[in-house]
Write a structure and sequence with these properties.
single chain; 122 residues; mainly alpha; elongated
Length: 122
């Protein structure tokens, strides 16, 4: 796996689009997609914009993908506002779906006498 592959893995892991990533580091999306290597100016910008990304991992593949100075993840840096909004929307949709299924289950139980079937004895 090379540097670009590891960066793509990071983006997938964090739910960041290639377009958003390119904009944040000041590169065109075409540059990121088409160049074989990334210049040091982009690696420095990546480190500045994504401080939890382990640059040793990006460059060499050694270590863990994410780091923090105290060894703990800083979730404020891991999740940017765009990603948090997407996850909040997904959670809301799932909560609504669960509420609807619970309502359907209650209707079913009401129509079937609590969902219990009486056993037939011979």
């Amino acid at each position: 796996m090379n540097t670009k592959s590891r960066l793509k893995e990071f983006l997938k892991n964090q739910g960041i689009s290639g377009r958003t990533f390119s904009e944040k580091i000041g590169a065109s999306e075409n540059y990121f997609n088409n160049s074989k290597t990334l210049g040091s100016e982009y690696l420095e910008k990546i480190h500045e914009v994504y401080p939890v990304l382990n640059m040793d991992w990006v460059i060499t593949g050694r270590g863990e993908m994410l780091v923090a100075a105290d060894g703990q993840l800083n979730w404020d840096n891991v999740f940017d506002a765009e990603k948090t909004g997407v996850w909040q929307s997904k959670v809301t949709l799932l909560e609504n779906e669960l509420a609807l299924k619970n309502e359907l289950l209650e209707l079913y139980r009401a129509q079937t006498g609590g969902g219990k079937q009486k056993s037939k004895t011979a």
